[in-house]
Amino acid sequence: MLKPLLQICPRPGKTILLASLLALTGIQPLQAAENNLPDFQSCVAGLKDKALQAGISPKTTDEVLSSVTFLDRVIELDRRQPEFTTTFTDYLGKRVNEARISKGRELLREHRELLDRVTRATGVPGPYLVAFWGLETNFGSYFGKMPVPSSLATLACDPRRSTFFTEQLMAALRIIEEGAITSDQMEGSWAGAMGHVQFMPTVFLKHAVDADGDGRRDLWNSLPDAMMSAGRFLESMGWNGDYRWGREVVLPAGFDYSKADGRRLPLEAWRQMGITDAFGNPLAREPIDAKLIVPAGHRGPAFLAYHNFDVIMGWNRSEFYAIAVGHLADRVASAGGLQNPPPEDLPALSRDQIIQLQETLNELGYDSGKADGIMGSATRSAIRAYQQDQQMVADGYPGTKLLEKLDIHARPEA
Domains in the chain, please, with CATH? Predict the structure, then answer.
């Protein structure tokens, strides 16, 4: 069951308009506001009514919601879109670097007893817990400085994702009411993620645990609570402690990259295609399925991702994030670096350029879906189909050759 591998590399949008909230709370829209938001005080009054209807005490409701303020910065961050998309090279390099690897190994040793306890209880090995901790808050060095009640109230009163953030605000009130933390101490990210492992309030309510026995679920000041809560969350999503997240592999010459389209095949099927591990050894004969991922195109590393990879994506719906968690866990557990690091000259596309790419593909008859500037599965499928017809390597990646052929200009990664 891949046990030898486990020893070194063990197992890391909800947009709804404000109309439904207005109907429930009677909130009136603001007549003249730069952000087209409902009047904040009127909105908060409606949120108080909603909290009381949800069974939150009048004392907690009044104390917390009477003190919230509208945060322009939160709306700015919610609206901000990066000018250029992040390449896999840049993403991985910033998150899995020597400083973080070294610190992760140090903390793995320092907290071995605690992490082993979490592993026994949840099946999630310590290196993964450390990897999540490292990516989420740089090992607890930065939780975010935003006042969570005000951040969530601001977002709940914004039409863009009102329903989702209203739910998060109600959950935050319940957390305060149970005594986990006081409202003035509840700080986190601009979107309301909190503590060592950046749980959203609804995740906190469902999965946070009191592991140190002090009677509180404290993800800010108790590392035992934070690590056990992270383990419980991953366990709830189906973490399989017998296997790792995935692994780097080598593809044979002439490989058909169209198979890197998200399909899951038995490990034996990939083995029969000539795929080996990163060192050229045959893949293990294990009764598990895997999907092939080439996050930087055919010139970069290739990975076979197992079930635990999808569990990691239940935490954060980004393949880059899931690979970073898995690779950091491997490195913390003393594995070496990638045998085929991602190339340094990957083109960085702006959102406008991705829209242009999508529009061009659609015009040529390759359905990339809505031209929204997001490089999703439909766009990659369209790229792959175009590449096949042009006798190019069909890796679904917008490399320099493809961009030149479609007359789309991108800057190389700095």
Answer: 19-81+143-196 (1.10.8.350), 347-412 (1.10.101.10)
Q: Report the distance separating Cα 313 and Cα 308, nearest Å.
A: 9
Residue 224 near residue 209 (C-beta atoms within 8 A) = no
Maximal C-alpha separation, the chain: 68
> Nearest 5°: CA angle at 85, between 409 and 298?
75
CA distance 186 to 111: 25
Nearest to 340 by CA among 309, 372, 297: 297
Its pTM stands at 0.89
Straight-line distance from the first to the last Cα atom of the chain, in angstroms, rounded to the nearest whole number:
42
Closest CA to 257 of 303, 282, 292: 292
**Burial per residue of 2-39, b for 16 or more beta-carbon CB atoms within 10 angstroms, e otherwise:** beebbeebbbbeeebebeebbeebebeebeeeeeebbb
Tell me the CA distances in angstroms from 299 to 26, 51, 260, 392, one per residue in order. Answer: 56, 53, 14, 13
Instruction: Pick the closest to residue 377 from 303, 322, 319 (CA basis).
Output: 319
Nearest to 158 by CA among 311, 24, 326, 27: 27
Tell me: the pLDDT tens digits for 3-36?
A: 333 333 333 333 333 333 333 333 333 333 344 4
d(CA 55, CA 69): 23
Q: Are 311 and 128 in contact (CB under 8 A)?
A: no
**Residue 399 and residue 397: Cα distance in Å, rounded?**
6
| Local confidence band at 187 (pLDDT 50, 70, 90 cut-offs) | very high
Return the structure tokens found at 278: 């990163």
- The confidence score (pLDDT) of residue 26 equals 35
